[in-house]
Amino acid sequence: MGHVIPDDVVVVGAGLAGLRTVEQLRGHGYRGGITLVSKEEELPYDRPPLSKQVLTGSWEPERAALCDRAALAELGVEVRTGEATGLGVWSVMLDDGTVLRTGATVVATGAVPRVLPGQPDGVSTLRTLGDARNLKEQLAQIDTLLIVGGGFIAAEVATAAVAAGVDVTVVEALEHPCSRALGPQAGELVGRLFRDAGVTLRTGSAIARFVDANTVELDSGEKLAADHILVSVGSVPDVDWLAGSELPIGDGVLAGGTGRVPPLPGVWALGDATSWWDQPRRRYARNEHWTSASDQAAMVAADILGLDTPTLAPPYVWSDQFGLKIQVLGRPDIADEVVPLAGEGLDGGPVKGTVVGYRKDGHLVGVVSFGAPARFVGFRDEVVAGTKAITTVAQEIED
Description:
Helix content: 25-40%
Number of strands: 26
Strand order of the largest sheet: 3-2-1-7-19
CATH class of the largest domain: Alpha Beta
Number of helices: 9
Shape: globular
Number of domains: 3
Structural class: alpha/beta
CATH topology of the largest domain: FAD/NAD(P)-binding domain
Largest sheet: 5 strands, parallel
Oligomer: single chain
Radius of gyration: 22 Å
Distance between the termini: 29 Å
CATH superfamily of the largest domain: FAD/NAD(P)-binding domain
């Protein structure tokens, strides 16, 4: 029996991953019905500009849109605004009581900001277009900002706030900002960027509690206050609606290498709501990257239609911080060795122009660049080859 192409596809989630899946299906000539379930009233929009161009004011919020209504009409997709509340066999339930029948379901509900215990309502997070609008208004009115968390989003918000003339303090529980993504050596370079920009950086400091919406108490007992507080401590997959669905849930929906999710038939998942099986890591991993969402969409659409699936490129993400573009390729988290590839940042020299390499078993599996895009691009093939080499070894061990 050959591959059966579904008559209808329901894509739950109208972010980048969901929209790109729709576009890929139509691009491959799929003529069946497609329903796109959107949690927000907004048209599908891009999230990376929210903490960059939208927050700085260099873009109007509308410019972050990924498409307009005419483009959606051309795709022949029915957009349903609302929240999914449950997943059955060949069906999706919505919060208004509607039951959508489907031959294939794509879970692309993304993630929601992680909140801290006792976090007051007046404290901001940044995930949606509405969040970006509100935070931009705050930056125009305040003199001081306290950011809890020191990851990429925190650094980009700090960049925008400093440019707006706001006095910024960042509290990070680890010893260096961005070290979860980059490791401590490259994280130390980010810390230098913070301090050189005039940000007060408090590392190795955890929040014990919120005193109120403008004050936190550190685990040392010290209190810090600001006109406004932003919590930026990562995100959690938006998958509570899948409780009772029999889908495997860990750090998001656990999906195979093409996005297919057993045991339910006809279910795929991608984007920030999922952890895909990652053979180089030999575990499920959540890649919260713009390029990963697009690449996974191509994989999912091809698998739904029974076509040859493309090869996923190594994960790639970028961050604009204090006048530098930081680019990350590959999997720095699996490295057993960190080496300088260009520049003198790791030896205390200028951060700009530094390229850091991450090796595992002698193979280059990741690269981080600080304002050196031309040099960064030159290492891509080596990262692809290194990733292939360790993947081959992993497969041989399993076999």
